[in-house]
Sequence to fold (168 residues):
Amino acid sequence: MALERQCFSASEAMDIERESGHPGAVLLCATERGGGDEELAGYLLLHRAAPATVAKLAVAPRYRRQGVGRALIEAALDVFRKTLHDECVLQVDEANAAAQRLYESVGFRVCRRREHYYCKRRSRECESGVGCRHALEMRLSFTPSRLGLSGATTPANSTGDSSHRRNP
Fold:
């Protein structure tokens, strides 16, 4: 997929079509209509196994900072709530401050640092740290009792709109 190559290095890229075919995987897509054609603005791959996981979020560079990523995250969180998950987890590059702010704005919190998570080489050599970057594991709880609240919870700044299609 061209968007995957635009957004991620070869070591981070995955075969989204293959990955989205796994049991429990859901691929959410945001498209932009223009001139009769649809252009892929972004996608989010989630896994519904416990814990619910945001496996990949990609937004085309020209659509960044326009609400595409937020719409996809909110749609994913709606899926997880409807399937009665207690929490959602994701990994984010510790150098990607914009993504961290997005995730924090919908309620995710950093729970730990994962060293050498993004590596150019998938081998034992990676432990040396050469060519590696670290990730932050972030979690969002959907369980009211863990938050000291009663009733259903909604992440901060969530509109409740699960729409993930943008049309001009």
